[in-house]
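To the team - iron/sulfur cluster complex, inputs and output below.
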Amino acid sequence: MKNYTQKIVEKYHHDKTRLMDILIAVQSEYGYISSESIALIAHELKMSDVDVEQTVSFYHFFSAQPTGKFSIFLNNSAVANMMGREEVATALEQETGIKFGQVTPDGLIGLFETSCIGMNDQEPAAIINNRIFTKLTSFRVKEIIRDIKDGKKIEELYSASFGDGANRDVSVQSVVSNNIRKIGPILDPNYKIGEAIRKITKMTPLEVIDEVKNSSVRGRGGAGFPTGLKWEFCRNAKGERKYIFCNADEGEPGTFKDRVILTELPRLLFEGMVIAGYAVGATEGILYIRYEYKYLETYLEKILEAARKKNYLGKDIMGKKGFDFDIRIQFGAGAYVCGEESALIESAEGKRGEPRDRPPFPVEKGYLEMPTIVNNVETLCSVVKVILNGAEWYRSFGTAESTGTKLLSISGDCRNPGVYEVAWGFSVNDILAMVGKSANVQAVQVGGPSGSLIGPDEFSRNLGYEDLATGGSLIIFGEHRNLLKDVVLNFMDFFIEESCGSCSTCRILPSVLRTKLLKIMNARGVQQDIEDMVNWSGFLKASRCGLGQTAANPIITSIKNFRHLYEARVQSRKEYDTGFDLTKAVIEACEVTGRVPNI
Amino acid sequence: MSKPIVATTSLAGCFGCHMSLLDIDERILDLIELVEFNKSPINDIKKFTKKCDIGLIEGGCCNSENVHVLKDFRENCKILISVGECAIMGGLPAMRNGIPIRECLEEAYLNGPSVKNNTEKIIPNDPEIPIMLDRVYPCHEVVKIDFHLPGCPPRADLIWDALVALITGSELKLPYEVVKFD
Ligand SMILES: Cc1cc2nc3c(=O)[nH]c(=O)nc-3n(C[C@H](O)[C@H](O)[C@H](O)COP(=O)(O)O)c2cc1C
Ligand code: SF4
Ligand code: SF4
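Output:
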């Protein structure tokens, strides 16, 4: 153990800001990070043990206990459940003889749950030793577990052919499918690679920023901040170095379009990062990718290497003196909150992914205290097309305030789940018609759990910053779905699991709201509970980051748009009910003492 | 007008809150001018003999008896006040909430360092003993509570001021020191 860990620490030059990479390597090698490993790493990096430990304990895919030679992480997103996750989970427990959260006594298989892994269009899905398995059934589970027990290697567990497009590339070989259903100017594969870089070498950085500003392109990561303006702030900020981050954390359940770009158009993305670097005067770019997409690592590294050979990256890019830029990949380790830009930076510095207080914003003080741009994958890709075809061309798509197109990740009850690129400004009804909706759509979740659950009354609203803003996730729910149980409860569980715990509001209120929700679902609620949920949610606005601030949205928006679902379940004759059940509360003690309840 | 009637009880508490009530010193004489006491450990009245106006509850609910007493208070008092941390949040007793009951009882009766003569390895199970709840509940999770008086215990002045405010219908002053965390 000593040798390997020391080698890894050396590989990262004893640099404690690279702790994530070191821990990821140790976790993959041994299946867990033991206290001995922690002590050794701490010693080598001249840190205290607890400083290493707190990073280890923060991330879902780091474990202080062995996770099995084959660690199975089954996704528990709402859509996975809709697509039959329950049956798969039961089969997994039956075949392995263990429960979730456990490892088989022989240490062969570990079973774990995990939040949405970005495969909503091909659920139920799981990750086994960094490989993705999609469209699981109880039969496939039997097959996989038997193969594992028979001593097969992870590569041998795949049965069917690989997915579409670059998923078949020799360095990917994954069963994941892109499911690109509709292309537009961003997904259009017919563009000349490297042409945008060549073009900017003939422009000044300010001209590049102006072009981006003129296009009015806004951030595609959810917040919609004007990209040109962000770049200008960073360009004007003082700092001896500057950094470009691409945010490929893509943790919002229901979103998977960045995964498709990373698979199909990584060169476009890298070009976007180079352009950003040139515009703000940065020489280093960092692509932060969620751990769930680790299966793309070799492939992306290969493409980066090829880009270096072509001088799209490296020194004096395309012959332009002083135009230096290179990109490295930083993996996360399983934490939704790391998608928040300041948490992402903390994580890339090797720390717990806890959001920072802002201001100062990353454009002034970001990675290693230097001015830093954080842009979403799709934003950076859009910029390349802006540079290639001009701001005016770009503005010809979409609406006045929402220019260009948006990649939508569509899943749930529809015929053709997948990625669709459409201009801004279409209504939800238009989108439903496009995807081949199931007969009767009860609701659509727009923008993932942090967005809103809307009903047919609002399907005429248009996607765009001026009306229904979205990071691009649309989940469709047919009339047979139980919205409170299948959707709202699942989303609340998600926020509770993913809160970083810094703010008392975000740590406590979502659990309190969940308890009330359960009370109503169990027919013990009263009218006042509904009002309480609405009123108390307001306190979440005091949270430090967007996670806490939006954590009540599943409840708030469902009460707003589906109030009848709540009111039908509350007791009409009672004004007050705590929901306390003495019979249930004494069961455990009676079991332990062998008593008959005599309450 | 007849005097308002007050009842008090200590559930899963340490009696510190009652002590704090007695800490109002000579104002206790004013208090009995202002109110009449019914069921309370202060006067040792064991059962409600009439309907009350105000019930002061110390401690949360850790067993079935606490629940019955609390429900009895709810039925017999117009206004219920959770007095102190234990009543409001479960307090110190709620430290057991993260630990399975089996572990708690085995530590207390079988394995703990102070266990000496339990050779038959018995965990008390007489039907007379109230049954432990799966966790310690704050009072408002069991019945409706109208007011909360924070503190561990709430300062005597706070209890006094709150009672006077409630009885005279005036507004209670809650300075920052009284309601702040820590
Ligand atoms: C909890 C949380 C999670 C987020 N996750 C992502 C994400 O996965 N990808 C992303 O691009 N932005 C995410 N964001 C938004 C980022 O903070 C940031 O606004 C964005 O990366 C900026 O890039 P853009 O301007 O190109 O959109 C998240 C924000 C919050 C509060
Ligand atoms: S709002 Fe939640 S996730 Fe964000 S910083 Fe606070 S506790 Fe962490
Ligand atoms: S709140 Fe404090 S003083 Fe009152 S019962 Fe609980 S521990 Fe005792």
